[in-house]
Design brief:
Belongs to the peptidase C19 family. This protein is an alpha+beta fold and 812 residues long. It is 28% helix and 19% strand. The chain contains 24 helices and 28 strands. Strands 14, 18, 22, 24, 25, 26, 27 and 28 form an 8-stranded mixed beta sheet that branches. β7 (195-198) and β8 (204-206) form a beta hairpin. α10 crosses α12 (363-375), α12 (363-375) packs antiparallel against α13 and α20 crosses α21. The chain starts with a helix and ends with a strand.
Length: 812
Amino acid sequence: METANAQELLRSNLSRVRIPEPTNRVYKSECCVSFDNPRSEGGLYIDMNTFLAFGKDCVGWNYEKTGNPVYLHIKQTRKLIPEDRPSKKPTLLAIGIEGGFDNNEAEYEVTYSIVVLPGHVTFPFPSVELPEKVILAADAILRAEGAERKEQLAAWTADTKKVSAHAMDLKQINNGVVIPPSGWKCVKCEKRDNLWLNLTDGFILCGRRNWDGTGGNNHAIDHYKETGHPLAVKLGTITSDLEAADVFSYPEDDSVLDPLLAQHLSFFGIDFSSLKKTEMTTAERELDQNINFDWNRIQESGQDLEPIFGPGYTGLVNLGNSCYMAATMQVVFSTQSFSSRYYKNQALKLAFETAPSDPTVDLNMQLTKLGHGLLSGKYSVPAPEVDDIADSATSASTKQEGIPPRMFKAVVAASHPEFSSMRQQDALEFFLHFLDQVELGNVAKPDADPSRSFKFGIEERIQCSSGKVAYNRRHDYILSLNIPLHEATNKEELEAFHKTQKDSEGKDVSSNEIVRPRVPLEACLANFSAPEEIQDFYSTALRAKTMAIKKAGLTSFPDYLVLHMRKFVMEEGWVPKKLDVYVDVPDIIDISHMRSKGLQPGEELLPDGGPETEVESNEVAANDDIVVQLMSMGFGHIPCQKAAINTLNAGVEEAMNWLLSHMDDPDIEAPIPKGSQGGPGVVDQSAVQTLISFGFEEEVAKKALKASGGDIEKATDWIFNNPGGSGSSDMDTTTSSSTPTTDTTAGLPDGGGKYRLFGIVSHIGTSTQCGHYVAHVLKDGRWVIFNDTKVGVSVNPPKDMGYLYFFERINN
């Protein structure tokens, strides 16, 4: 095209060019539909109207959808690196940041141009011949902090705390106070949650009152105003990782670090003796774990792993403590349900066309992007050599660059403050949160919901001393199993090892010489189904607390069964401990014997007595021991009460399972209603009619209003968060006033009870909040290790060291 005509084309489209404001999000590091970036073959195109970025294959789709024709094109071309560039010695367990490992990244030459679609008419930039508005817009885009970088910095900044000016010389008063590990209560009121321990005098007081009346009664801050005692720590946030404890400075009005927190807590009898061996920081402890046996075994360090490239073998870049997400997603996208939904049956272009104006915030779009990134093989190629003197560890034949799941993480974590941070997280909690988000995203078309392939029904039969029974039914995504150490198959070896240890008077033993208990998976499954005594069970037949027997089983068998091994326990002195144990997991399991049978002939159900009795029992049924134990793990008082009530005080394990699956409920922190104005259990008919006018069925509307205390907004949220609510709630209790039904399994996958192991998520470290996660997946008849961007044939998969085990049902 002639220069004059090209200039006229550009000027005719100036109305579609915007100069970004400081509040605009500018994407210039990665395509919002694919994982192309400025270093990709076609470079990156930034829409100069929306400031969204697109790769070469996707920019045309954006033009078709929006009509925006003007783009800033960025292309980076690798430079050769001088052979004499010195290497730096790392001081931090990090890659690519100051003080971390030198990742020997290549340097790139950057070129810019202005491109007008659909003809891809190109203008060099910078150039004085360009219209002033285009020059100003392009300069502003290049100067702007990229949206991806902004989000990452915000996450890091949110975690940054300063050392309190009052910590080092804090004076403590000996009042003879000794703080127990649980059962706390505000000294000035009856509050048992949101409690703060004043580090000067040992007073336990409730936190601030929120604007809506929830929270505490301001007793902690009032105590500071009266005494001037500056620092307090929130009970329930204290673990062996003291840096994670929530310490607040009232004079500084901010969360702070207390370097002497262990000393300040021990003053009141809180034992942190396990931390006295060393004063290493969390990062230093993580560095130290590189020589740990588990670390080497799970990562298969020292093994000459054969790298794999191609479809389904794409690594994920660690975004900063994001290995919990990477390991989980590698296994999830190895399933037929997720690969079909977001790859085989969902084209990138279709997902983009149906996405909102900003595809970066659309879960369906970002899941489709992640699915295509992981499974297409486009990005699973050998990384280019960094330089001519690179060793084999960085050569093109052994390493891949992987894809960074930044946009996916931002979307899936948007509603969860912890996953939005840069801290390490529990892979189990992320897996459950992720499936909840997928279920919500597919509420309009549940048949296409891939999360249902993991969902199954659990039935608990409870028989009290009256001889009558009740059946609790709920849905879950995971089967959480205790590890019965007394069922270890190598007891003689253990006894001999412990005797040797005792005789050697504490002499250090290498990790390879340590004898660990070996517990068969069958014992863990049997423990789940075994009868269990429940003390202080509230019997509606006796109208009193009594002893009951609980037995659990499954009402349906999912396509994919996930087993969670409970390796983390709380010891005396508030010290969380990871069980040092092996679980022998076979390749094939059969859980057919675990199917529940439901109400049997001759059984008599516990009486219900109607909504009034239910509400009365709710007021007295929350077992204090269960509530206190859950609160000691850091959960709030009201959620713990609801967990105990909704599981009929079946036990801490059952209450914890309920709590983990309902933490995102909109009304989880709402006070437990003691009855509406119309009487206990009675709902306002006008509210029912309002929900019916929204298109909901009357039965669903009434159920939602009862579950939400009559609040229409909360009831609406409840319906969307419980798409199966028309059949039954997540927790359905069968008593004499209701007929046992199989509705709780309606729509869920079901089949035989024979399963094959295909995925393992293993954890390395002392707690789920630190350390590292690695995935092993059975693909094409061989085990493959996914360790962030490292993908290779597994030589010795750690089948006995998993944290989460993924099984696929074997269909006859």
